[in-house]
Amino acid sequence: MPADDVVVEVEGASKSFRLPSGEHLRLLNGVDLTVTAGDSVAIQGRSGSGKSTLLRALGLFIPFDEGRHHMLGVDIRAAGDRRCSKLRARSIGFVFQDFRLLPNLTAQQNVEYGCLLAGLGPREGARAAREALERVGLTDRARSRPAQLSGGEQQRVSIARALVKRPDLVLADEPTGSLDGETADVVIELLLASVADLGAALVLVTHDDAVAGRCGRRVRLGGGTLHDDEPAAAGGG
Amino acid sequence: MRVVRLGLREFRHNWRRNSIFGLILLLSIGVQLFTALSAEASKTAVERYGAAVFGYAETYTSGLEEPLSVEQLRTFNARLDEIGRSYPWFRPATSVSLSARLRTSPSTNPADAPTLELRAVTPAWRLMTPAIADDDAWRTVMSDQRLGPAILLESATAERLRLTTPAAVTVLLAAEPAARTDPGRTARSAATAAPPASRTGGGGTGAGIALLNVPVFGTYSELNKAFTTGGLVNQNVLGLAQATPRPVQIAWRCEPTRCSDTYGLIRTAAQVVGGRPQDPQRVDNVDQILPILTAQRRDGQRFAAIVVLLGMLAVAFVATAFIEVRAPQFATLRALGASRSAIGAIALLENLFTAATVAVLAAGLGLAAGSLNPDLFNQIPQVRLDRMEVPVALYAQTVALTLLIGLLTGLAPALRAYRSVRTT
Question: Which residues form the ABC transporter domain (chain A) (predicted)?
Answer without folding.
Answer: 8-236
